[in-house]
Design brief:
rod-shaped, 10 helices, alpha+beta, disordered N terminus, Heat Shock Protein 90, two-stranded antiparallel ribbon
Length: 420
Amino acid sequence: MAKLWPVHDDGTSTWRLHGPGAWALDAALAAVLFAAVTVALSLWEQPGWRPLDAAGYMWTALIWLPLAGRRAAPMTALLVSTIAFFCYLLDGYTPGLISWGPVLAFYSVAAAKPARDTAAGALLAGAVLLIGGLQVPYFGVTAAVAQAVAVLVAAWILGGLARQLSHRNRQLAEANRRLAEASLRLEQEQLRHTEQAITRERLRISRELHDIVAHHVTVISLQAGVADYVLDSDPATARTAVNTIADTSRETLEELRRVLHLLRGSDAVEDATEPAEAPAGQLAADGAAERVLGVAQLAPLIERVRLAGVDADLHVQGDVEELPPGLQLTAYRVVQEALTNVIKHAGPCRAVVTVCRRSGALTVSVANDAPERPVEPRPHGEGGHGLIGMRERARLYGGTLTTNPRPEGGFAVNLTIPDP
């Protein structure tokens, strides 16, 4: 397949093609022109001129056939063609159509070479054209000079126009190539952003499902055990446990419904809690029908935890209810997960939850005073999602989360987030 030659600093060679296709095209053109001229000179012999013989055919071939290499070596093609034309004239053959061979070779030089090389080619071609014109009986010196100059100027102008046009085409092709590369990079970047968004969304939904299911199922499981244990001996306590199971189940279904709305892409679910610095955002409430979980809902959460056997207290300091909904949801989920871990791993104990907003930061602390009970090892890949989710929520807002045993016994979870 033919291709454009590289662009030189001087803007030359932009018009030329290279490759088997281009060479075959020029070779075919040279052969056709050679055949046409030789047939014409053989059929229409001019009186007073030497008829075309073997030497004439040889000189004619050397005039036209070098045009096959006019793209690869235009100066060489012009040199061979003009020398052969000069020898052709010296042998007494009629100039006529044969003079167009050097003209076409010069056009190739003008279309491929800078002005200095083109000027040298013009002197060479002009000299032989002038000699040919002077050999015509009815041509005077003025007519011969005018003819040589006019033909060469026209060829020079046409070659220059061809060079400029091809240069612009080359620039356009290069611009299109760069545009295609930029489009490909943009497409790849969009794909990468899409994949990252999908990953963030998957992690967000995973956190929400874990926080919802882990806490509520833990409460339901414990209350079901209490109800079964005191069903015959203490019906009132059993009834309280069953009511707690019913309330917790309804709340679980309500929160799961929000997640399912998000998965279905419901227009009713608006990501109203997404902070500027958190690309993934947080889940929002479904219009007025659903409440946004935040600091105000910590009191009911503490009550459920107390029913599960943990003596929990809540202390709220500062204007925490004025925080953005997304930040309040993060605080709620961290407290929820921390208390769930207290229920599962510490059992009946005392826990203190402190939510404080002061000195340009929001701090959330959940501490219990009982040592952790031994936890049975879990299969590889299970467990640990709660802590991971809490740390991810903290990072979304540029905060930190630490978890560590307390020197006096028990365990503490501390969240610190810069105040927006």
